[in-house]
Every structure is written in C-alpha cells, then in structure tokens.
Amino acid sequence: MVTLNDSSLRANVYETVWDLINAVSWGLSSSATVTVTAAFIDADKALPQVVIHPVDIDNSDFTFDKSSMYREIRVLIEVYSKKRKDLDQMSDKILSTMETASTPGMRLVDTGENTAMSSPAELKIHSKAISLTYVRRS
C-alpha cells in the first residue's frame, strides 16, 4: 500500500485501490479469470473485468484559521460479466475488501451500487457500478 500525500493524492488513492483489488482472490463459480483494467476492454475474451476509473476529489472549505480542510474522495469501479452470478460475487468481493481494508490517511464513509445490462453487438453483458466515498483531513 502506498503512503498518501496531498501533492499526489489522486495517484496515491488510485494505486491503493488498484493494489487492493488486484490482491482479491476471486473464486468465481465459473472459474473465469478476472481482468482488472483502467478502461473497458471491448473484447469478449476480456470478460469478466473490473474497471477502476480515475479518482475524483472535492475540497471542502478551510477551517477558520486555514489550518486544515476535508477532502471527499470518490472512486468509481465498474464490474462487467456475462454471468449474473459472477457479477454479484465480484461486487461482493470488492465491497468486502474495500470495507475491511486499512487505508491510513483516509476513511471510507459511503458505498453505493448501480446495476445495468447492455447489449453491444448483441452480447448480453451485465454491469454494476460501485462507488466508494472516502474522507481525508489535511
């Protein structure tokens, strides 16, 4: 796990999330190999896959003496699979990993999920978006 610092916070958070997700033992019922990537790979052989999007950071107002501020850090992770059961297993593993991981310098305060199904090129692909919200005081 990487040490978080304000000058490279986005890169540090991304690397931390990337490392945690790559360390997951997926154990899918279909015994498929999960591809972890930074962008959706439009190839049938790349499924199932996990896409980790760039990190968003919102800065709150400084304290009165400008000695500190809160930063809200949002990470969006998308999961794609042809099998609904694999999608749910992958989502559960990701949430479990992120909720129990020790992430010094930031605290997980919220998680959320959205589910969809798309049919590019007549392939039924199930997808789920997982949002993670962290808070950091600096």
Walkthrough of the structure:
By secondary structure, the chain is α+β, with helices and mostly antiparallel strands. It is 22% helix and 38% strand. It is built from two helices and six strands. Strands 1, 2, 3, 4, 5 and 6 form a six-stranded mixed β-sheet that branches. Strand 3 and strand 4 form a beta hairpin. The mean pLDDT is 86.
Proportion in β-strands: 35-45%
The averaged pLDDT comes out at 86
What's the N-to-C terminus distance? Answer: 19 Å
Cα gyration radius (Å) = 16 Å
Oligomer: single chain
Q: How many alpha or pi helices?
A: 2
Biggest sheet character = 6 strands, mixed
List keywords for this structure.
138 residues; 2 helices; alpha+beta; 6-stranded mixed β-sheet; elongated; 6 strands; 22% helix
Task: Summarize the helices and strands and which ones pair or pack.
Blueprint: H1 9-22, E1 35-37, E2 49-52, E3 56-62, E4 69-81, H2 84-100, E5 107-118, E6 125-137
Write a compact overview of the structure shown.
The chain has 138 residues and is of the alpha+beta class. It is elongated, with a radius of gyration of 16 Å. The longest helix is centred in the middle third of the chain and has 17 residues, at 84-100.
